Amino acid sequence: MADPALRILIADDHPMFRAALRYALGEIAPNAHIVEVASQSALEAAIGSGEAFDLAMLDLMMPGAMGFSSLVYARGERPELPVVIISSNEHPRTIRRAQQFGASGFVPKSAPAAVLAEAVGAVLAGKVWFPPQQAERDEGDAQLADRLAQLTPQQMRVLLRLADGLLNKQIAYELSLAENTVKIHVTAILRKLGCHSRTQAAVLVKGLALEDEGGELHDGAGGLA
Questions:
Q1: How far is the C-alpha of 219 from the C-alpha of 225, rounded, in Å?
Q2: Where are the alpha helices (DSSP H) in the chain?
Q3: How far is CA 220 from CA 61, 175, 197, in A?
Q4: Residue 126: is its pLDDT beyond 80?
Q5: Residues 176-195: pLDDT tens digits?
Q6: Is the pLDDT of residue 225 over 50?
Q7: CA atoms within a 13 Å half-sphere pointing along the CA-CB vector of 7
Q8: 25, 88, 134, 211: which is deepest, by most CB within 10 A?
Q9: CA distance 12 to 34
Q10: Which residues form the HTH luxR-type domain (predicted)?
Q11: Phi, psi dihedral angles at 11 (to 5 degrees)
Q12: What share of the chain has pLDDT > 90, as a percent?
């Protein structure tokens, strides 16, 4: 892991945690080039830049993200890029869902540096690494993952804005697209997802929301869980 060409993307909206993670990674891979982002839009820009990252370390709680949407986006845009989730939400179902939505690993934020090193080493070696406490496979999540996998990265970007309640012209402005292009994307999204309306598609995206310990859903767009 001391390869000077190793490139790691850290996505977390808390500067102090990014600094702590950078320090921990410095102990694991001292010559690694690390890029930091703090929001869903910044993550999209970094992944869309074409930079050849070897690993992405992703928090689920970022501005602009809808629970697992950032993971689904990253996997759709760069399926060859392994993603390790770093989260304070250690609920067994959260861990299982991360795996079902395509993560290569999951490290609780409470884990010691040795666990992080073990997970990063395993994932960079082409393996997966998850804590032992996981919930049973959920067929609903599996079906949702399959449906979302049909979308192109641009369609996923449009869908996330649609789920936020934005109009086509607002989505066009945010993504620097023509309004008619957005309309075409929305039509394709509804067809691929088997939805009859924008509202139905937005409800579908809500299925990516995180669950807290009490089973309540939240979108994960704030700070730490």
A1: 10
A2: 15-28, 40-48, 69-77, 92-100, 113-124, 139-148, 153-163, 168-175, 179-193, 198-205
A3: 4, 22, 24
A4: yes
A5: 999 999 999 999 999 999 99
A6: no
A7: 10
A8: 25
A9: 13
A10: 144-209
A11: -120, 105
A12: 50
CA geometry: angle 117, 79, 194, nearest 5 deg = 130
> Number of C-alpha atoms within 13 angstroms, CB side, residue 184?
7
Closest C-alpha to 68, from 109, 101, 35, 30? 101
Query: What would the 3-class secondary structure string for 118-164 be?
Result: HHHHHHHCCCCECCCCCCCCCHHHHHHHHHHCCCCHHHHHHHHHHHC
Collapse the DSSP code of 8 into the 3-class scheme (helix H, G, I; strand E, B; otherwise coil) and give the result.
strand
CA distances from 181 to 173, 209, 223 (A): 11, 28, 33
Residue type, 101: F
